Each structure stands twice: as structure tokens, then as C-alpha cells.
Amino acid sequence: MNKLTWMCAFMGLMITPVSLYAADFDGSEPMLCASLDILECVDGRDCDMVAAEDVDAPQFITVDLKNKELKLDRSGRPQSTQLRNRESLNGRLVLQGVGVETGLGWTFSVDEETGRFVVSSSGDEVAFIIFGACTTIPPT
Questions:
Q1: CA 10, CA 13: separation in Å to the nearest integer?
Q2: DSSP H helices in 30-90
Q3: How far apart are CA 57 and CA 120, in angstroms?
Q4: Domain assignment of residue 3, yes or no
Q5: 3-state secondary structure (DSSP) of residue 39
Q6: 18 belongs to a structural domain
Q7: 66 — phi, psi (to 5°)?
Q8: Which of 87, 121, 44 shows the shortest CA–CA distance to 130?
Q9: Half-sphere exposure of 7 (CA within 13 A, CB side)
């Protein structure tokens, strides 16, 4: 290869956005996630599809790993919950915690490539499974 070819290749690598080298949903940037489908399962009964407002589930979830918290919007009532555990495994970002207001334990699992997520949350005789999608929040 001649010098001109090497210089062009090097310059091409230098101007390629850094975001192309990292997974989009690995937690390096805050994410805004929207709940799409919610299953409610009550002890000893079938699970039913429900609306977020019917079970006081968050419609939107902001994932902020820098501050180790999830910010929830429950029917216009904002609140936050602290992360207790974080792990990246096989292309999934897995977060865990306990809702202070609800007392429900939860696991939030997001596909680092697509941004699709599943939250499982359980408490005394009830469990919720939330399916949805995230987008990254660009720095301001």
C-alpha cells in the first residue's frame, strides 16, 4: 500500500463517529424507555394484559447509570429508584433494585443492540412483566 492509501484509511478511521464502535444501549448514555405491553399476574390466577395507568406502572423510564438510578413517570407522578446491581452479560444490560414506594423487587434487562427491554417486578402475591423499547438521550 502506498502512503496516500494509508493516510486516507487512517483519516477515515479518525472521522468515524465513536458511537459506531460501542453498543447503543450499554448504559454509557442515559436512555429513555417506553412501556409497550404490560402483563399483570396475580397469585393463582391467569396473567392479563393491562394498561400502565390501571396498575400504576410507569409509562416512561429514564435509565441513568451515571447516577445509579431509574426515574419513573407514573401517570404524571415522577419518582426515582436506586440501582442495587448492574451487569452486562451476553449482549444484555441487566439492572436490579427494589422500589421504595411499592416494595416490589425488579429486574430490568435491555438488549444492548436493539434497545428492546423487559422488566420483571414482583411482590406479595403479584408480578408484573413490562415489555418496551428504549432510545438513548443525546448529551446536551
A1: 5
A2: none
A3: 12
A4: no
A5: strand
A6: no
A7: -60, -40
A8: 121
A9: 3
Which domain does 37 fall in, by range?
24-136
* Residuewise pLDDT in 10s, the chain (140 residues): 454 343 333 344 344 443 444 458 888 899 999 999 999 999 878 899 999 888 888 899 999 999 999 998 877 778 888 899 999 999 999 999 998 777 889 999 999 999 999 999 998 888 999 999 999 988 77
Reading the block at residue 94, the C-alpha cell is 441487566
Residue 129 located in a structural domain: yes
Q: Can you read off the three cell numbers belonging to residue 74?
A: 407514573
- Whether 100 is covered by a domain: the verdict is yes
* Nearest of 80, 112, 82, 77 to residue 94 by alpha carbon: 112
The count of structural domains within the chain is 1
Q: Where are the beta strands (DSSP E) in the chain?
A: 31-42, 47-50, 60-64, 69-74, 77-89, 92-98, 105-111, 116-123, 126-136
Longest dimension (CA), the chain: 72
Q: Are 85 and 98 in contact (CB under 8 A)?
A: no
